[in-house]
# Entry
Amino acid sequence: MKRSPFDTATLDEIFKFDSDNNERLSSRESGRLEFKEAFHFGSADEYAKTMAAFANAAGGYLVYGVKDKPRILIGLKSDAFDNIDPAKMTQTLNSILAPEILWDPLVIKISGKRVGIIYIHEALTKPVLCLKTTKEVQEGAIYYRYHGRSEKIKYPELRQLLDNMRQKERELWMHTLQRMARIGIENVGLLNSTTGEVSGKEGSFLISEELLSKIQFIHSGTFVESGGQPTLRIIGEAVPINSQLVQPNKLVRTPLHGPDILYAFLRRESVLTPLDYVKQICFEQSHFYPIHFFINQTNITIEDVISELEQVACRASTKSKLILRLRTNENLTYGSLSASSPASKRRNHIISSLISKSLTDIECENNLGDFFHSLTYLTGDNADPEFILPLIQRVAMPKYFTLPALVAGSMRKAICHLDLIWYKRNNTKGSQTILSTKSN
# Structure
């Protein structure tokens, strides 16, 4: 069974007191531990730096309620930590860092005093990069946790980080292929641990979110009645949950997928079932896909769309983030144009070329990352869909399946920005629906 990050042994190690002072901690800040006196949501960029450093290393703990020099346990003096909105915090972190990091909060009492802890998981995909420059972080920087401090990563650690990621990927492929060979390729089914979809030779079925979260904690086990390691055995009846996910004779998913959503937007297609395109995003690994373009093809309100999404049976993480996008005023603008860095200069040039419609395919292809970032600075007044959308189709979409995850994420966010400035209702700039005559 996967060990909890807040197990008793770990907490006892963090909150180890001096033998001669029951308020002073003997534990010190390290590669996996940092103390903060208080929590303030306004300091999110400062916390993001440390969280990115932990995620790029081996994970770690941010502890709030400990005064530094000397390390005295003072406890939380306000309820700011208790009132953390996970969705808002995640959205803030996602505006500063990519790819997304995973974190868990906890409030406990130590020696009668309330303490807040955030555990930052080691990133599955490294490195975690900073998306913009703030008071605490720099755009494009990779932060790493050294002994007791978070700094820009040095070459030896960066080299080791990249080598480890490649080695893990190779080992995972070899392990998976060996198991498939033992089972027989005709008997293999694939589980998407994000959506809960299991697909195989005879079709597909969907594992409920509640059960999926438990399955993901089981690493190995033996199927015996007693002894061995903990194992989960799934029993019961298969229950159809949605006519779009289940057909009478065979469990199948709709053939609609993320790239279909992108292509429909880029081609400005008037689709037959636009709400299905929005619902499909719930089953994707990312919630950054265009939505307002499809909503504009319906006659229902945003609140009606949210109600429909709440009824979709799927993993809640992507769905909740998608609903949050619909309920908030998004700002997907990347980085800064005022800095004198080469990246800022390239983006300024690309923006001017996009507005003047003079950007060439070669310029775009040679600077894809900057191209996507530049798109997020366009407005409904200066962005021409007749020029921009075919450009993305010609240059970016053929490479979409081979793009690094970070670049592919920037592409989707750029398309979401275009979706906002052109199609979001009640937007004073470019709120008209722009469709082509092509349909599904």
